[in-house]
Amino acid sequence: MKIVIIGGYRIAYHLARSMISKGYHVYVINRDPQVCQELAKKLSAVIINGDGSKKNILDQIEFSQDDIVVILTNTDRDSLIISQMIKRYYGVERIVTLVNDPENIEIFNRLGVKVAISPTSLLSQTIQGLLLVEEMEEFFPVEEGKLVFLRVEVPDSSPSAGKKLKEISLPNECIIGGILRQNNVVIPRGETDLLPGDRVFIICEPKVQTQVIRLLVGE
Amino acid sequence: MKKRAESLYMIIVGCGRIGSIVASQMSASGNNVVVIDNREVAFDNLSEEFTGFKILGDATEIVHLKETKIERADVVLALTGDDNTNFMVSTVAKQYFGVKEVIARVNDPDNEDIFKEFDIEVISPTALVAEKIIQRVDVGGQS
Fold first, then answer.
1. Cβ within 8 Å, pair A89-B63
2. Which of B65, B85, B88 to mutate to test the interface with A (most CBs of A within 10 A)?
3. Under DSSP, is residue B134 helix (H, G, I), strand (E, B) or coil?
4. Which helix (H) or strand (E) holds A49?
5. Does A117 lie at the interface with B, CB-CB under 8 angstroms?
6. What is the complex's ipTM, to 2 decimals?
7. Do B88 and A77 touch (CB under 8 A)?
């Protein structure tokens, strides 16, 4: 199994370096000759200079079906055709691609690229998380933001402090998965009391996140 | 292209030398044509007979494709000079918006296979020109 990184510059370099240090065989395709020279000096990887959206360049790599291909070009149209060539010509299924326009994520998904990551949407979700409340300790959207993982600390002023979980009218689209109380893990039941200082781990749909936070933290 | 009785709703992506001629003629022969290009000057290539809509924008951004009402299109023609753009527009038209007839200009003959994999009709200017030249030179040859 090898890891093939197509396009990108800084990210390609850092990713390649980290993968090499973990013991993987890394191949890099980049169309910029200067980038290739630099990478060749710094990395013990196979570096191929050429346009990764051309079949004759891709053919230089002997792909096998268990390879992992990471596509980091800065235009979605290039990444799309590369991903489809890799899939159709070489039968590689594990493809990770960077998507610039968040609206294109669904297009990649629909064309069989399951892992399409948009830095834009990751950043904007993280920023939104920061904007929520101070008590929010962690805000981690998964599955392209369809599900959110939250960790909040219950303040003294919380409207729910001292209540049993079953007495708090949490929306159905949310579940409390765990409570950390003075370094002890409490697996929550309906009878569990919520105390100030508790760190609560929540999984919910984004549409109810504000409501959940309001209930557990307050306004 | 085949002759059709009724007028078609047609999206043409790329209004360069080839796209503008196709768009102008298709419009002149009574079809509803929307042409999209990300260079404003490209629309200068259209003839006076063109009565369709012009949309300024990058067709590989889905918001701009939606502006063309692509989901209602009978035909989408991807005619830019860049194969990767044409591939994205064509596959999105076909797989995402369910457009039945998608025709793409494919400049690099090596790329034809991947377009055909997605049931996209391929027009290769390279092959067409080469064929014409061969026909001219080798008068007795087969086509």
1. no
2. B88
3. helix
4. strand A46-49
5. no
6. 0.83
7. yes
Rounded mean pLDDT of A125-154?
A: 76
Determine whether the interchain pair B87/A81 forms a contact, defined as Cβ–Cβ distance below 8 Å: yes
A8: tokens are: 């990108």
Range of the domain at A154: 122-217
- Paired with B11 in beta bridges are B34, B76
Separation CA B90–CA B124 (nearest Å): 15
- Nearest-CA neighbor of A173 among A208, A202, A218? A208
My answer on whether A34 and A54 are in the same domain is yes
Would you state the pLDDT for residue A132?
Answer: 65
Give the CA diameter of chain A. 67
Tell me how far apart the alpha carbons of residues A104 and A144 are, in angstroms, rounded to a whole number.
12
Predicted structure pTM score: 0.76
Strand partners, A175: A203
Helix or strand or coil: residue A95?
strand
Domain shared by A87 and A147, yes or no: no
**Backbone region of residue A144 per phi and psi (left: phi > 0; alpha: psi in -120 to 50; beta: other values):** left
How far apart, in whole angstroms, are the C-alpha atoms of residue A78 and residue B103?
19
Nearest Cα of chain B lies from the Cα of A169 at a distance, in angstroms, of 39
Cβ-contact B35, B53 below 8 angstroms: yes
- Point out the residue among A56, A77, A88 whose CB comes nearest to the CB of B110: A56
Q: What is the DSSP letter of A193?
A: B
Do both A6 and A113 map to the same domain? yes
- How far is it, in rounded angstroms, from Cα B86 to Cα A174? 43
Which CATH number do you get for residue A135?
3.30.70.1450
